[in-house]
Protein 1
Amino acid sequence: MKSLPNIIFIITHDTGNYFGCYGYSVKTPNIDRLANEGVIFLNHFSCAPQCTPSRGGILTGKLPHSNGLMGLTNMGWDLPDHNKTIPQLLKKAGYSTHLVGLQHTHHHPKKLGYDTISPRTDFPYMASTVVRRFKKFIKHVDQGEIKQPFFCSVGFFETHRHYGFTRDGSSPFNTSKTRFPAEPEEIQIPSYLPTDSSAVKNDISDFVSSVKEVDYYIGKIRKSIDNSLIKENTIIIFTVDHGIPLPRSKCTLYDPGISVPLIIHMPSEIKAKKVDDLVSNVDILPTLLDLVGLDFPEDLHGNSLTGLLIEDSNNKYNSRNHIYAELTFHDNGFNPIRCLRTKKWKYIRNLVPWGCLFEIPNDVFHSLSGKAFLEAHPEFYSPRATEELYDLELDPFEMNNLAKDQKYSAVKHDLSTHLMKFLKNTEDPALHGEILEPEVPEEGPQKYIYDLETES
């Protein structure tokens, strides 16, 4: 690249890959346009199926059990100081670093390496507020008041459910159903949920409205960039922290819990295309360091994707044949699960006994979809298996566990051996028994996440 590019990193909350460009019928023209004009990664996965650990994986290029961020910030976890983050590392190349909106990895975001933080206390960081602040940020850039090159992380609260469980029939998502109505053809009920349930249909309808609101404000961000002086030398990255907020999705290592988009856009340098390679969100940090010419820390779990973005003799990409993902804590205590995924196979190791088949986070458990799922599946309260094995080509929703089928014993053995060797080599503390979770701060979990310290 001729000069160091500005980097705008956009991340939403709980959206999975529920967008038109990923095969859903929901109308998301702005995100689809970004994908059509940039590089869209069709097989991109988060390293964790919940917010804080996934975001920590992005920031550090390491899986949660290695970077130490294994639970939610609102439950007392902060990214340990020994990690080097994207904003901290980019400063070595002369970048100024900025946070606009939600971050959810540290109670004191300044410790993550951001020079400026805006807004500071606008719970819950809805897109309308965040984009208004982002427009001011771009105005300051154009006026020369913000140093270039810059890294700017932009985080929306959408499409997360309300924290107060909705029981009165109102939308469980912070969105305007009249402004962003879900059309009937946009409501797709996954086959692992009760497909004839009106409750599930209504829940997903509200979720789709929130997805469409996300898309609307992504369009506002794009317009602000296109009308600025930085348009030609700015990389836009769009992703999501983890899968959709439905049962058997968020908080599980099944694909609906870890399938997320990755779109990278810079038309002056990066040609538009679709990439089918298997990639992980821990690849984002090494990719950015590679693009700006910085050396990698030695302990990364991610690989640079630069060879997939800019194809020339200087950029070679070594294709990976698997990704890892994990869960340790969410809001139901110690629940360590690890997985290895190839294009064809998913192997899951449940490290401790659990009294139900998988975890449903509290906000989803009390939702319309959660109640309908539990009514339709009384077997949910059965003890889960220690090992799970799925053929993703024949069983994409991972409904038929092959772990006890002798026909697949060799496959299971190979994947299990590979996964456990990796966990031992990376000193996963969950292999040695229960990990104690930090105490929730006296301020309460919601204040701890969102009412950040008043730093400029």
Note: The chain has two domains: 6-309, 323-432.
Protein 2
Amino acid sequence: MLSTTKRPLEGVRVIEVGQLLAGPFAGCILAYFGAEVIKVEPPGNGDPIRNWRVLENGTSLWWRSIARNKKSVTIDLRQDEGRALAKQLMENANVVIENFRPGTMEKWGLGPEEMKKTNPELVYARISGYGQNGPYSSKPGFASVCEAISGFRYVTGHPGEAPVRSNLSIGDTIAGIHAALGVVMALFAQKNGNAEGGQVVDVALYESMYNLLEAVIPEYSGAGVVREPSGTTVTGIVPTNTYRCSDGKFVVIGGNGDSIFKRLMETAGYPEMANDPGLEHNAGRVEREPEIDAALAQWCSTLPSTEVIRLLEENRVPVGPIYNVRDIVEDPHFNARGLFEQVEIDGKPLKIPAIMPKLADTPGRTEWPGGELGAHNEEVFSELLSLSEADLAKLRGKGVIN
């Protein structure tokens, strides 16, 4: 039985006009926490994610997660009737999320200035590679390219080698999180009377990644320091690194607190380093980083990863394994924290990840997995827009909807 606990965004209607990852992930977050998200997809094949990566019965397993709780409608935005239909939906909404190239929505007569005429309260979230203005705004911006220009990719990898990327489209996902946060802030400003009606939330993929750069900008501005890639370490914080154990597995050790470092080196069998006044504080440890890392690497190489973890945890030193997805799904803590939700696809169970953060009194939840293309056409167009069966038949005949 579905939970009846109220969620924080219930009563908010969102029209998601976009595809692939950044916009849809923003919509996924909002839908999880109670918003009614109506996803507009092109007739035919719909959002490309429906057919990406691992498929089951012709539909991506990823789709079941990212499209959860969304109502799928089909509209051909290349046709006048389709744009008119989308405009009606947006006139009856609190929020629009779009992630087309800047200018596309204006070309279709669906931009924020146009919508303000008939729905001045509309919060209009726009996600693009480089933002809605500036000299790069018209460039195509995929996550990989935007991660690179943001400065994030430069510091990722090993010195002297090609920068690496994670095997995930984090530029899109981080932008989606920023968009969802921006939408909620805009709604809050509206509710508190701090904004006159709706407003545009302008999210750029490269800026979302730029937002993760910590001290990189002030260190360059104030001291001329260019942060370089540092492999498996973090510049200026010692020790924090990845070490191979005797069983071939890796552990990550974070021993950079002063008292933690002392306990770490005593546990590892280096009492002279634990009690060395020159290593008492981080600045001294940074100067002798190779020496410290060599000692820890040597110790880890003599023990299996489970033993390294056991010994360090007993002495309150932050340490942990590097998990793959099998490890995650089988881990008791992940399960105890409710990080998986189970849905059914054609009678078969499927685990999908829960969406963070956890709210004690108004938690989010998955009500249904991403469904079939156009599954909610009749519900949305008939109930929300009051279209008759004759109207729908006419739109189907023209290919405006499925």
Note: The chain has two domains: 13-212+337-397, 240-244+250-321.
